[in-house]
Amino acid sequence: MPDRKIVIQKPALTPFNVVAGIIVAVGLIITVIRFTQGLRATTNLSDYNPWGIWIGFDLLVGVALAAGGYVTSAACYIFGLKRFHSAVRPAILTGFLGYALVVLALHYDVGRPWRLPYPFIVQQGTTSLLFEVAACVALYLTVLFIEFTPAALEWLGLKRARSIVAKLTLVLTIFGVVLSTLHQSSLGALFLIAPSKLHPLWYSPYLALYFFVSSIIAGLSMVIFEGSLAHKHFHDKMDAEHLREADGVALGFAKAASWVLAGYFIIKVIGIAQTNAWNYLGSGYGLWFLVEMLGFVLLPCYFYAIGAREKNLKIIRRTAAWTVLGIVVNRFNVGMIAFNYHLPSSERYFPHWMEIGISVFVVTIGILAYKFIVTHMPILYAHPDYDAH
Amino acid sequence: MSISRRRFLGWLSAAGAGTTLGRSAHAAGGTHFTGYPDSLGVLFDATRCIGCRKCEEACNKVNELPAPQKPFSDLAVLEGRRRTDAKTYTVVNRYENVPGAKGPLYRKIQCNHCLEPACASACFVRAFAKNSNGAVTYDESVCVGCRYCMIACPFEIPTYEYDKAFTPRIMKCTFCHPRLLKGQLPGCVEICPAEALTFGKRRNLLKIARERIELFPGRYLDHIYGETEMGGTAWLTISGVPFRELGMREDLGTTPAPELTKGALSVVPVVASMWPVLLTGVYAISQRREKIAREEQAAAVAEAVAKAQAEAKAKHTEAMAKAEKDKKAAIDREVKKALDEAAKAKAQESAAAAAADKKPS
Ligand code: SF4
Ligand code: SF4
Ligand code: SF4
After folding, report:
1. CB atoms within 10 A of CB B309
2. DSSP bridge partners of B160
3. Portion 189-248 of B in contact with A at CB < 8 A
4. What share of chain A in percent tops pLDDT 70?
């Protein structure tokens, strides 16, 4: 149990703080430009390319990488794998922050962000997969918020409220899994409506399934990846339970990720067979597709298996980072690189530096919020006055 | 199926009480829809178009769009490849050196007013409506600006006012809906000097197109573009050269857009109803497994304790018995020792007495 009173106040001008400060300052300036001058001034979006990295990265990648919350809480509370208990709170926290930032980023992307509630309160476009995504993301953000509150309530010392929320754990977990299944898959299904624009190697009637299965991979890998980062930087905040279980969590998750990656590879091959897209494999896009499939699916599948068998945490952690990168590659491919493949290169999209600036800004806010919460609330350790829930 | 899906999603939404089944939603819904019976359309005959850009000018005027940088009479803009944009609902492009054609060819681009519009199906606030006269119209008062309609449209028609910070809108051809309601022709149709645009009921336009193809088989290809593409469109095109030569995609297929997402949407009620059941089942099993494990553990502990106790007791009695025996043996030993000593003493005594008896003699 770390004594919270002797948290050493770090000097204000560490390199981290300086860089973060600059990013936030630049981000705020771009924010002003975005909301006073519009999208043309800050983005390279066009009539051919209505979606850029604010959708391809902030939404598609953001939601996939925030999947650790539902994957971990399902493993612990539903499948009864109590040995992963100490991993639940950090995963819920990153899930919550991830979704909150996705919603924040969407305010930059849509033309009239103050109308974001319209699909719920004015008119429901229920034939749209985007409606499903919006509804589930909104509800799931709420669920994650409630799931996260025990930590905040313990920090604030509100015992009564905390015990009420703790009783809801199972219901919230199930609801979270339902919502996650729906919107993780719908993000892929968004592209089902545009078969003529997405390259046939990536377009598949199974897009929804692909996005769902790969979100599990993303969730598992993110928990391992974050865990290793947290160990490096917040070791002093971890209690004995966390430290004791951490290696087991990494091993268990690595094994699971290896299996899911193998399954993912198989359904991808089945998809290619189904649409008979083999002949595209010889083209430039085909080569890139093979890089994704072999380099970012089969390779991590193999190394996760090796890492889990030899109990080699170093291999597992590196593989986790690589797999997270693979998820980014996949979402970029579907959302941007293989999208509009038919257009001449002069019409293709490349992000404006201010778009990148906002994406980096949003991620930085996430890291800062994580840092603040982990140093103040019982995330990486159990609060001594409360039982586990 | 679709009812329960709508119900579910309606329930999901905050204002679940409102009706979720509007006209446009119906037109864009999953059911097979072959267009409103007497809906209107326009037939574009690519063999007649002379590329004068008069339709562009008329469209600009009737829709009160901002004036273009170069005047409409400037035909030099035909050099480049243009598309619709936020200030232009329709453009005419020129195609040179098309095999089989004597001179340059032209094609007019605008919204095709699909029978089952992808844009309407994709919009999550139902900003688009497929009107019974055939026009696909857009309501800017609800649009959030997500631009998913632009992703969805297979003809790359909708455009966005990226320049505006506060009131950006989707911009696209309206089929001159307000004019149609007043009984007027669409601006572009009205002005066309070459009769390349024919306005009428879609049903009749298909007949006219077929007649022309039959009458002049050398002049036309035997295909009406838009009859079946993406489930059919209100605006149709006939041409003397393959449509791809005019920059039109021939790989769109005949599946209407809502059909493409039907499967994914139908999964919603299944997941929403089955997942909780399955997961609760899994939870129950894992709880039971845990309970059994706990019980077994408790039983094992109890058994171990009992065994240990029994053993301890046995040991105790044994020890007691042994102690008893030892004690008895000790007593025996002591008694024997005492007796021995006594006997010894007695013997000594008698020996001494005997010695004493012998001495005086
Ligand atoms: S052409 Fe595009 S914008 Fe026009 S109705 Fe069809 S999908 Fe909608
Ligand atoms: S941009 Fe507007 S009209 Fe287009 S899908 Fe989004 S909300 Fe609907
Ligand atoms: S129908 Fe009207 S809005 Fe559409 S292209 Fe013609 S003039 Fe323009």
Report:
1. 10
2. B170
3. none
4. 97
Calculate how close chain A gets to B46, using CA atoms only, in Å: 23
User: Where does ligand 2 bind, in terms of residues with CB under 6 Å?
Assistant: B 122-123, 125, 127, 143-149, 170
B9–A126 CB contact, under 8 Å: yes
Task: Report residue B150 as tokens.
Answer: 């632009």
Spatial distance between the Cα atoms of A246 and A248, rounded to a whole number of angstroms: 5
Find the closest chain B residue to A207 by CA distance. Answer: B264
Asked if B152 and A132 come within 8 Å (Cβ–Cβ), the reply is no
Nearest residue by C-alpha to atom 3 in ligand 3: B173
| Cross-chain residue pair B25–A126, CB shorter than 8 Å | yes
Cα torsion B81, B84, B85, B90: sign: positive
Which range is least confidently modeled, A280-284, A353-357, B35-39? B35-39
The Cα–Cα gap between A115 and A109 comes to 12
Q: Is the pLDDT of residue B195 over 60?
A: yes
Average pLDDT, chain B: 86
What is the DSSP pairing of strand B40-45 with strand B197-201? antiparallel
Q: Is A175 helix (H, G, I), strand (E, B) or coil?
A: helix
Residues ≥6 apart with Cβ < 8 Å to A118: B125, B142, B144
Contact between residue B106 and residue B93 where contact means Cβ atoms under 8 Å apart = yes
Nearest CA-CA distance, residue B122 and chain A, Å: 5
Listed in sequence order, the residues at least 6 apart from A301 whose beta carbon sits closer than 8 Å to its beta carbon are A258, A261, A262, A265
User: So what's the pLDDT on residue A384?
Assistant: 78
In the predicted structure, residue A388 carries a pLDDT above the cut 50: yes
Residue B358 banded pLDDT, cuts 50, 70, 90: low
Q: What is the DSSP letter of B102?
A: S
The CA-atom distances, in angstroms, between A126 and each of A143, B7, B128 are 22, 9, 13
Cβ contacts of B144 on chain A, cutoff 8 Å: 110-113, 115-116, 118-119
User: Hey, are the CB atoms on A128 and B12 less than 8 Å from each other?
Assistant: no
**Ramachandran area for residue A158 (φ above 0: left; ψ -120 to 50: alpha; else beta):** beta
The structure's pTM equals 0.84
Tokens, residue A266: 């198989």
What are residue B348's phi and psi, to 5 degrees?
A: -60, -45
Taking the mean position of all CA atoms in its chain, how far away is CA B152? 13
Would you state the structure tokens that stand for residue B229, as one six-digit string?
A: 């593409």
Residue B267: the pLDDT is: 87
- Whether B125 contacts chain A with CB within 8 A: yes
Distance from CA of B283 to the nearest CA of A (A): 5
Q: What angle in degrees, to the nearest 10, is found between the helix axes of A353-376 and A15-37?
A: 130
pLDDT at A164 over 90: no
Residue numbers in B near A198 (CB within 8 A): none
Q: Which residue has the higher pLDDT, A156 or B119?
A: B119
Report residue B273's pLDDT band, with 50, 70 and 90 as the boundaries.
confident
Ligand nearest to the CA of A119: 2
User: Any chain A CB within 8 A of the CB of B28?
Assistant: yes
Burial string for B96-111 (b: 16+ CB within 10 Å, else e) reads eebeebeeebbbbbbb
What is the structure's pLDDT at B153? 97
Residue tagged 């009131």 (tokens): B167
Alpha-carbon dihedral A135, A140, A145, A151, rounded to 10 degrees = 180
The token pair that represents A212 in the structure block: 């769902």
Lowest-pLDDT range of A364-378, B215-229, B292-306, B343-357: B343-357
Residue B164 φ/ψ, nearest 5 degrees: -85, 135
**In sequence order, what DSSP letters do the residues of A115-170 get, joined into one string?**
GTTHHHHT---TT-HHHHHHHHHHHHHHHHHHHHHHHHHHHHT-HHHHHHHHHTHH
Mean of pLDDT values over B153-174: 96
| Interatomic CA distance for residues B184 and A82, integer angstroms | 72
What pLDDT is stored for residue B23 in this prediction? 40
